[in-house]
Protein 1
Amino acid sequence: MSEPTRIGDPQPLTLPSIRPSVTRRSVLGGALGGLLGTGLLSGCTTTPHRDGHGLGPTFGPPTPTSPAPGQRVVERTLTPQVATVDLGGPTVSTWVFGDTVPGPLIRATAGDFLRIRVDNQLPAPTTVHWHGIRLRNPADGVPGLTQDPIGQNASYTYEFTVPDPGTYWFHPHVGVQLDRGLYGALVVDDPREPGGYDAEWVVVIDDWLDGLGRTPDDVLAGLIAGGHTMGGMGGHSMGGHTMGGPGGMGGMGMDEQGMPAEGMGGDVTYPHFLINGRVPAAPSTFTAKPGQRVRIRVLNAASDTIFALALGGHRLTVTHSDGYAVVPHEIGALLIGMGERYDLVVTLGDGIFPLVAKPYGKAGQALALVRTGSGSAPGADALPAELDGPAMRARELVPAEASRLPAREADVTLPYHMAGGMGSYTWTINGAAYGENAPLLVSAGQRARLSITNQTMMAHPVHLHGHTFAVTGSGLRKDTLVVPPMGSTAIEFQADNPGRWMSHCHNTYHAEAGMMIELAYRT
Ligand code: C2O
Ligand code: CU
């Protein structure tokens, strides 16, 4: 297969890449573990559904499908397992795909058929969700909706076509496993794209705590025991919560009242922030030559942290949001919520530059280095001046013509009200936690609108599986949209992919504490 020319790929440590190989169809084993017993924190799998779905059905082995004649097949195996990982100083025992954080980069071309076998070596059931891909429902990786969780020592094979080019990713959809090291980037190349850049880098940002005394399950248990929905209405406890911290809200932007425009910084304090699995003291380094044009694919894989991202001494041109082309937009810094992706193009200067992701409303930062020349490397706490200015929000972007949904009146408008429970760590959509809220119902062929309100003091990244939506007004195509505190917006999508789909806040703790809802098709 032909690969775009890439100069200055990240060093192997930075992000391991597994190149796709073209294979013939092969028969895959898939002894399917029975499983269950995911523990009290796997609301996804154990919450009884209003109509009884949570108690069944069981799904059995993966729903097989076949590539079309002539369709290229990309085969991979992912092995979620416990491993010891060096984050560039802190060495942690954690849960990863393979033995690195992030997991292996999966690369394909739009139209390819992916066959990905997951061998679960974790001490718990798991699944893999393919975030942002408009795939067939049975391959979506949501336990209780599209499959049974993959039991310990069991295997499961996901088979689906990747229809659209773009920057995507994968992660488990069980409990708070995502806040361990279980995530990886999935890049789908556009066979028609001219390219026009000299190098391409994948930059994955994360907030890290696993293996340093607390697990994500401990953290969720603590939040539930603490009983605060920090950003919820009436629940403004700041106990144990780091607001601002050194560096303050630099670059984050304030609203008219002088409140940070994105509200509170999250529910969880993290000891580390990572770019491509490295702490700032021992950063990932990207190398290139001065004057080269680089495409940077940025993914926020964090569980509880929005970041402002900037490259010291450079302007960045945003070219894609969640895989979809936008009218190129030049910025100094951008805000990226959990689950979001942005593709950027930059022309590099001469020297060594800090690429910094500053956690919104929290102390610390993630850092990588871009090296095109000599000089002394910026320190671990280097703060690009670009972060002093306002960071771009998605609402400033305009979709490229080719990314627009064809104009059409909505056939149905459904409410999507996000709130925080009072007096308990519960997050809700439409007045109830997942399992107690009624599914959003559409019929195949409809143009559906979700009328979203955020009745809390925190920003929530709203994610919809299986579809990409257009933000009402701008028409920006996305699959994950940060809805600011007390904000409202609407999104529209074509109901063209029947099945049972999840929609939820991409804060892992919020989702697990109830901020999820099913999107179902009438049959
Ligand atoms: Cu990336 Cu349901 O999530
Ligand atoms: Cu949320």
Protein 2
Amino acid sequence: MSILRDDFLWGGAVAANQFEGAWNADGKGPSTSDMCTNGSHKVPKRVTRTILPDTLYPSHEAIDFYHHYEEDIALFAEMGFKCFRTSINWTRIFPTGMEQEPNEKGLEFYDRVFDCCKKYGIEPLVTISHYELPFALVEKYNGWEGRELIGLFEKYCHVIFERYRGKVKYWLTFNEINAGTMPMGTILSTGTFKGYEGPITEVPDKPQERYQALHHQFVASAKVVKYAHEHYPEYRMGNMICFITSYPLTCNPDDIVRNQESMRETNWYCSDVMVRGEYPAYAKRLWERKGISLKIEDGDLEILREGTVDFYTFSYYMSNCITVDPNAQGTGGNIVATGAKNPYLEASAWGWQIDPKGLRYTLNEIYDRYRIPLMVVENGLGAYDEKGPDGIVHDTYRIDYLRRHIEQMKEAVKDGVDLMGYTPWGCIDLVSASTGEMAKRYGFIYVNKFDDGTGDLTRERKESFAWYKKVIASNGEEL
Ligand code: BGP
């Protein structure tokens, strides 16, 4: 008897914009991520309003999954994947988001991908919107600030729900929807940067626009969840949160209260709406603090109540600390870089603090709050990988990171948490969302592709490949 359930969804996660490439093939339109240049840990990537000559846009080729999908899915099957989390590029289906009819060639590509998964008995878990939206919608509507996007998103969802019936059962509406509560989400998620060009870290921060955009995303999500429940009863609809667990830096009650505020704003605000179907009691004060006044139309609150999700998913990479002390030493982090350093934790080369026990704590906190099934749909270590003299990447540091997190997931299950599955991030090396680098690798599979755009795109198994295969085969008992 293993600790994890027998039908545990082991697998891996990726996002279309970070690994498909073929950015303008077969009628695909430009998405927000296609307008982003490469960057690094030190130099932020830039967003441009036109495609500039002699400039590297990493999503344009990425690792070219578009033409390697059969080989890649075969490798996932070799590891024993039960589940593959990927996303659909909205711009393959509706190149500007505004067409009346979908692009058949784009639809056919995902038919091929999902059929290939089916051949190996791999269950797709599909994110409908993962850090890309048609760039045309930024220029026309200021992204999700425009209420028009709700209808355009519904049209897109209705098409893919119908087309992939029988092939896809698990859907997530928006990747890391709570990115919209943070300035970095302006480019990645809400698309509220009409007319802006420059480093993604310097985009003007307009909380009013971000929160209005979030409201539209909530309504759009609830509408399509309700629609799916009514028309496709076999579908399971989930949310997706970038969970950035934070602890009070000290037991000073001011730190405790500040951390509570921060946890609500960063982590709970969005899922309270999507799971409970209403804005939380603390929302009013949060809006006041930020000077936000939301336009909520008649019927919106009713839709939120009617479109609650069936399961809760999240990414977990790190934790940080919150304090009122302005002199506390800071730390880096996923999407947000506002936390204080935790003296008990080590950090990755990118400054993300590694905290496996925080995953157990987080799973318990989420499950206590909502009591619906949970799934960890991203987790992993972004690292510089070097090949050893034998030509293989011996990524023992990655194995160690994943092992320690899986151990803590099992502890959480023993604590009583209902955990459906685990899909570590970037199961095959891909472009980093925050920096646009290839050098920040997460995969079990190494891809010969480098920051300057060179590389023959060949795929190679890392040491972690065989390790993860064993983990899956033993249902998490052999770590
Ligand atoms: C999450 C995103 C992913 C992903 C991951 C790792 O925030 O959902 O798209 O890329 O983080 O982040 P990065 O690529 O910046 O290392």
Protein 3
Amino acid sequence: MRKALYPGSFDPITKGHLDIIVRSHAIVDHLTVAVLENPRKQSAFTVGERLEMLKRCTEKYPGIEVDYFSGLLIEYVKRKGISIVIKGLRAISDFEFEFQMALVNRKLNPDVETLFMMTNSKYSYLSSSIVKEIADFGGDISSLVPPEVHDLIVRKFPRD
Ligand code: PNS
């Protein structure tokens, strides 16, 4: 059984993330989408809120599990019996850091493969930071995030 992990901060999930999730789900038998609980990184959304958003967006796809982890990714995949890690690439600028992480993870466990999936070109400019910035200034994020989570995100950035 091909079991894969798509890890990330998902702070919040975007249409770009969901596109990678759906396309990954189509080529593996079981996909775990996991939020990194990282006390060193300031997040707009709690881990609970990020899990709720991921669940809302993925509940119609059988074979997708939503989870969270802390610590090293390679330890988490070992515990879960997962041997494929999927990362999305938007631009060359993503590549250098992702390449380094893939090599570090391979050093830590050579049995785990990192697969890079190219973003859908229509989302190549999109990131969670962009969504937060637009929402914070009261802009329209409806074309950037899945409809299931739109209101939840907007409510996080109240306008006076
Ligand atoms: O959505 P992001 O913030 O780009 O996701 C990054 C993530 C969570 C995939 C990455 O930071 C990660 O795997 N962190 C876990 C710690 C780890 O294993 N680091 C690699 C070895 S240094």
Protein 4
Amino acid sequence: MSSVVCIGSLNVDLVVRVTRLPGTGETVTGHALERHLGGKGLNQALSAARAGGDVALVGAAGTDEGGAWMRTELGGEGVDLRGVADVEGPSGTALIEVDAEGANRIVVIPGANGWLTADYTSAQVARLGSARVALAPLEVPPAAVLGALRAARAAGMRTILNTAPVPPDGLPEGILDVTDIVIANEHEASLITPRSVDGVESAYAAAHALRDLGAHSAIVTLGAEGAVWSTPDGDGHTPAYPVTPIDTVAAGDAFCGVLAASLARDLPWDTALRRASAAGALATTVAGAAPSLPSAAAIDRLVAAHPLEDT
Ligand code: ADP
């Protein structure tokens, strides 16, 4: 029986390394073609599973070889994939060019992810109705996320919305009314509230604004400055864990997945936030997305090694 339901995108990330990015109409020679698991739904499901959660993923994969590959990899990590629809055609695919300095250019083809509807996600979430927590980022059609969180709220789950990425038309109308915890990074919080969010003080104001918009609780993540939160019981700041980052990809996904898995285990709020912050920190110490998502043991070691003072 699953304790966490993740609703979101599954992507095959194709990464080509180039000395320099090509200009319009130009051809450059690439070296090293890599294939990685990607997509925010997939990353967050994997993050929650590695942190010890019983996780089900609701989404869509294509009938191409990439779809089969993602299923094999996720199944091997214990993620329940019965809610992942087989959609005729290509899987979501990200074409990522990275130059020698680490600068990148990315084209994302939604593929099967674009097929998701509110009817599909709400029916799947209702089927998984005994789960404790539902977690959804916004990389699939916004109506499908709204439908999923409405169904999760109706089933009595704790609902978590990660606002990555903010849709071009803003958040779907009414979504924060069915959100227990909204998680936004500084950029997303700036777009939604709208106000300039840069650092701890402005993050408190943004967290309050997110609650005024309808969410019970709000968390604003601040990269190397940790995360600020506001709940009906009070506000606080969870500091970042000291690490030497080499690649910050998927820090937010690690944070969200581990928070969901920790709350599903009924861990106290402060403990869940510390584990999430530790997971985000650890994710920056390994290159890539999926390879960087830490195990429960690594998270708990980092938390134990650095007792943090909340501020
Ligand atoms: P996103 O990837 O969505 O932009 P953030 O960069 O805010 O999200 O990272 C999410 C969380 O991961 C942060 O709140 C923090 O706990 C942790 N984290 C991110 N970057 C670092 C870092 N450089 N050092 C320590 N922790 C970090």
